Structures are given as C-alpha cells and as structure tokens.
Amino acid sequence: GLSQYSSDPRTEWDLSTYSTREQVLEAVRNLRYKGGNTFTGLALTHVLEQNLKPDAGARLEAEKLVILLTDGKSQDDANLAAQTLKNLGIEIFAIGVKNADEAELRQVASEPLELSVYNVLDFPLLGSLVGKLTRALCTRIKDRSHKETTVKDTPVNTGPQLSPTDLKISAVTSKSMHLAWSPPPRAPRKYRVVYYPSKGGTPKEVVLEGAVSSVQLSNLTSHTEYLVSVIPVYGTAAGDGLRGVTSTLPLSSPRSLRVSELSHNSLRLSWKAAQGATHYLVLCSAAPDGAED
C-alpha cells in the first residue's frame, strides 16, 4: 500500500488494491508527485487510521511495517505519532533524502536503528538502498514471526465490540469544544483523541483512560474547521476510531462605533465591547482626497 503526504495525506492505493508485483510497479510508474509541506506526524496518523485496517487489506495475522520516505524536517510532531504506531507493534523504517533531519529519522524509526534508518544525498541514490533495505525488512518479518507470543492480545479492529460510537461535539466556542461518545461493550485501556485544523496544522493529541468517555478541547484557533478522531487502544492494538468535523466560532467583534468630541487635532471614539477581548488595536489614517472625512 502507498500513501503520499504534504499538508494533507492521500492514499494512493491500499494493501488490497493490487495482487501482483507487475501491478504495483505499474502503479509506481504512474504515481504523480504531491508537492507541499511536510506534516509527517499527520501522515503517520493517517496510515494508522486509514491504511492499517482490515477493510484496507491489512491481515490480522500479518506483521505491520511502515516505510517512511521524506526529504525534509517535519512541521508537526512526528515523534508522538510514530511512538503511537510503535506502541501498537508496528515497525517503522525511516529513509531520508536531501534535507531530511537525521535526528528526527532516528526518533521516528524502530530499534535497532542500524537496520531501520537510512539517509542519502539525492533521490537517484535511493537505488543503492534497495538490496540492503529488502534484506532488513525480510529479516525483521522472520524474526518477529518466529517469536513466541506469551500474551494473546486483541487483534486490530475486530468489530463493534472494540469501537466507540455516537460521537457528539457540543459547547463549541471560539477557543474550545466538548467531545463525548458512547464507549464500546469492551472498555479499552486508553483513548487517543487526535485533533487538527482541516486545512493543515499541527496535530495535537490527548490520551485518556479507558473509563473516560468525554473530553474538553481547549486553546483552539477561532473560526477554524477541526478534524477530530477518537481511537480506542487495547494493549498493543487499536479499534476503529470515531471521526468528526466542526468549526470553532469566530471571535466576537466590537459594535456601534461612534465618533464624538471632534477638535482640530483630536477625536473621541466609543463602541460596544467585544466579549472576551483583552485589548483593542485602534488604527487611524487620513481619508483619501474626495472621500468623506
């Protein structure tokens, strides 16, 4: 499967889209480059929520591997999103090109770093990594597959027993909103609540105990559309997430501007206060010729 990202991640094809090597190679040849920003954290969250699910072709018994290819430093918190994937048993290999931040690659990648972090000076040099990376990937899959699992955990996304329902967004103001949902029949260990502006912005995350089914999101930007996700976490697996979208209110404006006490070099302004305002900025300039003073 492959997703491409900038400000907004985009799934190019799912794990179940193609069934032969030739089909995948043809899809790669037809891939159109997506320019833009570098929101790596948002991209990793997209992979978890959209691409590593059974309805996208992820098999419950299969090892989960993510290969991140980036040519820049992330503009959001990639480490937080990567840690969430790694906590769920998903392996991350990080490949940097040109201006990639190697320290960030090492934070994002899974241990051991000598097998999972690669960096080259330009795109044509990626060809030199193919053999080494292929061997590393295959070795990791074999090693993980042969390990005996002593604790049987819940597989990813096995149905409604693991998924919350009925997300309600209320008490929306210019800076906050309240989320509430109905918990699944089987309570999760934790919830991850991820929220970010729909037109690009740094994703933020709140982690809640599994007994909690509501949260107040604060310090939001006014007059902004937000995407929110509520993801239940069971040990080393995640259930289906709830998703919603809503916009914060615009900040209130002052009203009824009046001018009084005019003199040759002064005037007095008065207005009805804007709710919640802590300061006012007053701008004054001479009217252009011919305009009313």
Describe the protein in words.
The chain contains 6 helices and 15 strands. Helix content is about 20%, strand content about 30%. It folds into 2 domains: about 1-145, von Willebrand factor, type A domain (Rossmann fold), CATH 3.40.50.410; about 165-250, Immunoglobulins (Immunoglobulin-like, Sandwich). By secondary structure, the chain is of the alpha+beta class. Strands 8, 9, 11, 12 and 13 form a 5-stranded antiparallel beta sheet that branches. A 3-stranded parallel beta sheet has the order 3-4-5. It has a 3-stranded antiparallel beta sheet with strand order 6-7-10, with no helix packed on it. This is COKA1 protein. It is found in: Secreted, Extracellular space, Extracellular matrix. It comes from Anthoscopus minutus (Southern penduline-tit). InterPro entries: ECM_Assembly_Org (IPR050525), FN3_dom (IPR003961), FN3_sf (IPR036116), Ig-like_fold (IPR013783), VWF_A (IPR002035), vWFA_dom_sf (IPR036465).
Short structural description:
Residues 1-133 form the VWFA domain. The chain has 293 residues and is an alpha+beta fold.
What about the largest sheet? 5 strands, antiparallel
Please identify, by name, the CATH architecture of the largest domain.
3-Layer(aba) Sandwich
Counted up, domains total 2
Strand composition percent: 25-35%
Domain VWFA: 1-133
InterPro entries: ECM_Assembly_Org (IPR050525), FN3_dom (IPR003961), FN3_sf (IPR036116), Ig-like_fold (IPR013783), VWF_A (IPR002035), vWFA_dom_sf (IPR036465)
Domain Fibronectin type-III: 163-252
Keywords: Extracellular matrix, Secreted
